C-alpha cells in the first residue's frame, strides 16, 4: 500500500490497458453492445458537495455561453475571451450524475492506479477500474431576480438588459468532467419557461401524432372515410414552411484546426441550416490549443470541439441549441481522447436519447465504438415535432450492416417524421445502404429478414422530374466555379449531382459517396433541394476531408 497526498494523486495515475486475445477467449470476439463507454446514472442532491463545486467552477462558462446564445454581435471580436457579459446565479431544479467507465471487450474495463480512501480517511492508490469521466446532467433556472455582475472590463457590452431577464431563463445542460478533472459544457438547451411545460404544450399542438408503427397509410385511410363509408378526397398541401438539415464530418482536430474552424463556421453561417448533425467531434488536447495556465478551468472548454463550433456560429449570429455524445475513447499515455456525435438545432430540443451500436472486437475494421444520437426538435412555425438521428458507421462491411439494422430498429420506436443522417462509411451499392434505402438504384437488401423504408434524399432530388432544372443549374454553377481559378471564396459549391460524391475532398475531387441524409417514408417532409458544400479550399486548406450535405424539406399536411 502506498500513501499519497492529494496533489500527487492527480498526476500519478498510470493507465494500464488489459486486452484479451480472441485466441484465448473466443467468446469475447462476438459482436457486443457492452463495449466502449459504460455509464451508471444516479440522481444527486442540489446541495451535494461535488455538484456545488462543479457549478462554482463552471458558473462563468455557463453564463458566457448563455451570453453567446442571446447576444447579437455586430462583428466578430478580435479576442473573444475578453468579452464583457452578465454573470447570474443559478438554481438547480434537477440533477443527475453519470459515472463512466471504459469497457474494452464487453467483459473487462480499463484499469490502472486509482485513488481510494481507507478506513482511517487517508487516500492511497490501488489497482482497479478507471473512471474516465463524470457527466452532470442539470436543469438550471437563472436567478433573474437577483442583481447580476459583469466579468472582465471591455466596453463592448451593449445588448438590452431586458433580454437577459426574459429569455433563456431555464437551461438544460450537461457538464463533462473528464479523467483529469477538466470540465466542459457538452449540452446546452435554452427555454423561456420550464422545459416540461414547454414540451407538453408543444406536443399538444403537434399535428402529426401517428407513430412509425402506425403508418401514414393507416392515418390517411382513417382520414378518407366518412361515417357512411363514402369516399372522401384527401390531398396533401404545403404549409409554406421549409426546414433544412445539414450533415458534416468535422475531421476531428486535424491541423490547422484554428483555421479550419473559421472556414467551417463561414460555410454553415452562409447556409444557415435549421439542424446540423456532426460526426468526428473531439474532446481532447490538440495541437495549437491556447494555454490557460492562470485559468486552468478554461482548458476543458478549449478541448471541446463542439464548444468551438457553437461559439464560432454564435459570433456569426447563428444561434443553436446543441447536445454532444462521446462515442469512442482513445487511450493515449495518461490522456484520453473522446470522439463522438453532436446535433445542433435552431429550434427547441424537446428530448435527447442515444444508443450504443454493437462492435466486433475480432474485426480490425470494427475497432471503434459507434453510437446513434437522437434529438426531438419542435419546429414552431408548423407545430411539427421531428426526430433527428445521426451516426458514424463502422469501417467494416459486416459492422456497417449491423449498425444499419440497429439504427433502423431504434428509429422505428419513435414518431414520424424523422430524418437520419451521417457519415456511414458505406457506398450506395453496399448492403447497409441498400437495406436502409427504399429508393436505391442498386435494389434493396434485407438484414435479419427485414427491410427498412427510408428515402435517400439526394437520390430522390436527383431523379425527381420536378427537380431536374435545379440539378442542371447546380451542375452548371459548379462547372463555372471550376473554370474560375481566381476564386477566393470558400463558400463555393461543388455540387456533384451526377454521383453525389462527398469524400475525400482534400484534392478537390471527391470520389466516394459515404455521407447521407435519409427521411422517413411519408409525405409530411418533401424534398425540395439538396446541396453539397465545403469541397473547395482556401489558401490550400480544406474545411474538412468530407463535403457537407444539406437537404431542404417542405412541410405538408393532410386536408
Automatic annotation (TrEMBL):
It comes from the Eukaryota. One of its GO terms (molecular function) is catalytic activity. It holds the Pfam family Exo_endo_phos. InterPro entries: Endo/exonu/phosph_ase_sf, Endo/exonuclease/phosphatase, GPI-anchor_lipid_remodeler. GO terms for cellular component: endoplasmic reticulum; membrane. One of its GO terms (biological process) is GPI anchor biosynthetic process. Residues 246-546 form the Endonuclease/exonuclease/phosphatase domain. This is Endonuclease/exonuclease/phosphatase domain-containing protein. It comes from Polysphondylium violaceum. The lineage of its organism: Eukaryota, Amoebozoa, Evosea, Eumycetozoa, Dictyostelia.
